[in-house]
Every structure is written in structure tokens, then in C-alpha cells.
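[worker-b] picked up task from shared queue
[worker-b] task type: protein-ligand structure
[worker-b] ligand name resolved to S-adenosylmethionine; SMILES cross-checked against name lookup, match
[worker-b] sequence length check passed
[worker-b] input payload:
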Amino acid sequence: MPDGMRFLLEEIAGLELLGIYKVERDVVGIARKIDSSKTKMEQNLNMSLKELIKNNQNESFKSTYFGVPAIKSPADFWIYHEIIFEVKPDVIIEIGTKHGGGTLAYSHLLNNLGNNGRVIGLEIDSNIVDKTVRVQPNITIIDGDACSNFEKVKKLIKDTDKVLIIEDSSHTYENTLNVLNIFSGLVTKGSYFIVEDSNCWHGLDHGPSPGPYEAIETFMKDNNKFEIDSSKERFIITWNPKGYLKRIK
Ligand SMILES: C[S@@+](CC[C@H](N)C(=O)[O-])C[C@H]1O[C@@H](n2cnc3c(N)ncnc32)[C@H](O)[C@@H]1O
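[worker-b] inference finished, payload out:
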């Protein structure tokens, strides 16, 4: 190690011992000294948007809703709450529930709307769904592949129900497109089909390729029933670029 570098590291270690500096790894893994008198945000004001997106994606895997893991971007979740208040759906279909933190959040939001709204969660391996989620009176979990269970879902919906769908399952191009084609007819006019994780290779450098983003583009080609509502991407950072599809006809 060059002498200059050793001196610098010793200096940082010394200052760290005195409580003046901490050494931390930033989101791209580069060690640097941190001024502990500053907040985390102040320390990262020069971070690029790409680094911030990566950081937020990693942190979302640690998120919970009422104690149940919920893999959600907080900014998108706020948008969902605004959409749910605006649309006032009778039914929210969540495709891919995993532990069910998101499912539980939609159930609570519908309870607060006071319209007896319910959530239908589809999960290929429903053993993973948390007990807190299963016992909610307004949540129905359907086990198995989402597209194969379409008829079961349809039977749970009345003609008069306002329906909103959130797709968050395998994120492969084929499955996302199938889900869009098979389930989109259930979405009522004025409501939304939200496709999650279209940020794969469109913000993030990983995930299926082609993935949800490309499936949305294929679905939207020659489609006059839905439009991409980019106003819902107003926080700029979103896991769902082009993924807020509003039914207009
Ligand atoms: C990203 S996680 C869902 C996260 C959850 N929506 C949340 O907010 O925390 C994706 C889930 O989709 C499920 N899944 C994958 N392919 C599926 C399919 N074809 N049908 C139903 N569920 C599927 C997986 O088992 C996994 O639990």
C-alpha cells in the first residue's frame, strides 16, 4: 500500500476513534469518511440519481407494513393510496402477494374508505403469506399460478364492482403480458392496472430482460382502452415507469 494511502487510512481511523469521522461504504461500495455531525441525507447530496435508485431498491427489501414484509417503494405506495382514495375500488386484485405486507395495506385502506372493499391476493406459493394477512375478513388469498386462476377470481367479482389491479408477480415478459391480456378486462373505466417493477433495465441494472417494461409496451400497442398515466410518476423515482395504466374506455 502506498505510504500516502496508509497515512490517510490511519488518519481516518484516528479521527473515527475521536468520534469526528466514521468510515462507511456508500451504495456503490466505495469506502469513504463520513462526517458524523451531518445527517445521512446531507452526506449523500452528491449521490447520483442512479445510485439513489439502487439504494432505495435495496432498502425496500427491508420494509414492513404493520410488521409484515412489504417489498414496496414508499413513493409508489403513497401514489397507490392517492389512487385508491380517488377510485374508491370495491375490489383490489394483487397478483403476487409474497408475505402480504402490501395486501394488508390495501385491506386497511379499503377499510378506512368504509365501502366494504375487499382484496383478492394471488400467490403461486401461498404458504408464504403471513397469518396476520390470511385472517383479515376482507382478504381472500388464492393459491397457484395467477393466470390459471382467472375464472376463480372472476367468480368473486360482481358486475357492479369497481376493480383495480396491481401486478407484482414473476416480472418475466411472457407472464406480465399474459397477466395484462387475461386480467385487464376486469379493470373498470377510470380505474388502474398498475404494473410493478418495470424499472428492470429502465432505472435498475438488473432483472428480466425483456421484462415488465417491454410487456407494457407490447400491451399498449394498438390498445385504445388504457393510457399510461405518467402524472403518477411525479416523484421521478418509481419502481413502475410506464406502469400506471388508466382505463379510459
Ligand atoms: C415481488 S414478490 C411480491 C411482493 C408483494 N407484492 C409485496 O408488495 O410485498 C413476487 C411474488 O409473486 C409470486 N409469483 C411469481 N409468479 C407467480 C405467478 N405466476 N402467479 C402468482 N404468483 C406468482 C412469487 O411467489 C412471489 O411471492
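[worker-b] attaching auto-annotations
[worker-b] The first strand starts at residue 21 and ends at 25.
[worker-b] releasing lock
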